[in-house]
Amino acid sequence: MKLNPKGEIVNAKGWVRSKRGNKNVNFIALNDGSSVKNIQIVVDVAKFDVDLLKKITTGACISVNGALVASQGAGQTVEIQASDILLYGTADPDEYPLQKKGHSLEFLREIAHLRPRTNTFGAVLRIRHAMAFAIHKYFNDRGFYYLHTPIITSSDCEGAGQMFQVTTLDLENLPKNSENKTDYSQDFFGKPTRLTVSGQLEGELGATAIGQIYTFGPTFRAEDSNTPRHLAEFWMIEPEVAFYDINDNMDLAEDFLKYLIQYALDNCVDDLEFMNEKWDNTLLERLHFVLENDFVRLPYTEGIKILEEAVRKGHKFDYPVSWGVDLQSEHERFLVEQHFKRPVILTDYPKEIKAFYMKQNDDGKTVRAMDVLFPRIGEIIGGSERESDYDKLKARIEELQIPMKDMWWYLDTRRFGSAPHSGFGLGFERLLLFVTGMANIRDVIPFPRTPKTAEF
Ligand code: 4AD
Ligand code: MG
Q1: Least confidently predicted of 188-202, 308-322, 396-410
Q2: How far is the CA of 314 from the centre of ligand 2 (A)?
């Protein structure tokens, strides 16, 4: 934007990032959170009350009226020559933790209630918003319907038993039934309920009725993994599409991810450049790289061969690798960063390490799963073509001893007008790790929930 201010009077409200100057003139860097860039306020000291100026310290909130003029100094094109200043709120310099110098991300996590006032978290939050908006735009523009799936549920979609229980029973004094077990008939819903790990099962009900849907909501996993890629509460986007096979599903995943990255490059330039400069100087290059290259598509079995070959040649992994193991992120990242040097979609995993709903391949050993693996992240998307055959699905449910009473409604989609369909889940914060270049998932969500931490 080319600015050619002619001294019009403007108002700016925001928080003081810094104040410097001398006895004649003060320069206040003011930020209202809309941009990583501050506006410079020039204060002619003689025109203001000394006590007022003294109280304007880093973190204080002020409103300034003044003339917008071309800046004399370097570093900004325009500045405001203050004519009057209203002090909304002071920030005692001895107490306010965000002084001018850079703080560590670990420290900022402890003051997550104030960290949005830093350039870094302002940028992350704006990018997070832009990505959420782009997700809705992408699907809306393509005729998908946003389906609101429940947060409280009685089924375990992923079958991993990592669910948070929801109850109004008094844990100090649980009612017992005749078998001396907890009497859930007295609980709020009359049965055990939990926070959802995925909206997929209900998403499938939507797809087999209104064609193409997506969910976008919070999901919860009580997995005790203290890693830079796991949260106990995260947001997931789950498209589900009738008549899609796994190849259509992979096309959708690749197109969707590329769209989101392009959207960020088109709409978050200042913030991305800031993140590139401050945290990760290969960020922009990596974003462009993903846009410009086709994702590799490869069966799990082939992936394992490559990893075994790497081990034979002397590469050391922390976890052993052989056909049948669930891949660790070190394996995923090896395929992406060292072997192919491109995003990889791994398909056809062993059925034992994947959820019950995936379409069974004819080999009797693998299922039509697809995981999208990204540089620095590992798995960013997990999905599959779904088993649409009633008998096969029921057999798998029985094999895994999933209580049938919980699954009757899901099986009904295969009993009445069953249709081939596919879908996937994108972890929103994993996407944001990739797009912002941040290294820890705790730094791309406003208030992270992880084992032993639920502050704010
Ligand atoms: O691979 P997941 O477990 O797949 C599902 O939940 C399917 N029901 C999705 C579907 O097919 N509709 O999870 C999907 C994605 C992962 O690839 C990862 O990006 C993210 O969700 N994810 C997490 N993100 C942050 N913290 C965690 N603890 C996560 N667990 C999964
Ligand atoms: Mg997965």
Answers
A1: 396-410
A2: 28
